[in-house]
Amino acid sequence: MEIFIRRMAPNRWIFAPQAPYTAEPGGYAWVPPTPERPAPWETFAQSALKLKDDMVEWLTSFSLPAIPVDLMGFSQGAAMALTFTLLFPERVNRLVILAGFLPKGGKKALRPGLLSGKACFLAHGYNDEIVPLERAKECIEALETTGAKVTTCLDNVGHRVSARCLHAMLEFLGFNAQGV
């Protein structure tokens, strides 16, 4: 997430937690390894509960108010951000999903009006070889089912965020291209 953090406004608090599980090759994951890939909704929900507890601790330790936050994630991190938002909508102001997906079985958490009016941004590549475009479309449909206001940016890239979508995301978050 560092590539995005460098472009954020300096007058904002940014918490960018590292996912707690080791993943191959040399990365990190929000859910423990499971035979089912991707991990099911219940596994993501357990991790989201832990993330909520951590978030409360961080806000308290920095004497910050427990106001709704802007939440962003890439790939599995986007699935975690979406899971968190569906479980704790009152804690999220805006949601940014980058090359993400709704975890398998997550449709059971969808309720009309759950995210009524909540602003969500979704960026995805037409040529994503890790998270197929169909999963992004499913995610958009899921968000719209809950009443969220979804802004999308689809582009001719693989499993990454294009420059055009990065600019659109910064605009969505209220920053200019330099992050101020």
From TrEMBL:
Transmembrane segments annotated in the record for this chain: none
Gene3D superfamilies, per database record: alpha/beta hydrolase (3.40.50.1820)
A GO term for molecular function: hydrolase activity
InterPro entries linked to this entry: AB_hydrolase_fold, PLipase/COase/thioEstase
Ranges of residues in domain Phospholipase/carboxylesterase/thioesterase: 17-173
Signal peptide positions on this chain: none
Protein origin, superkingdom: Bacteria
Protein name (Swiss-Prot/TrEMBL): Phospholipase/carboxylesterase/thioesterase domain-containing protein
Organismal lineage: Bacteria, Bacillati, Chloroflexota, Anaerolineae, Anaerolineales
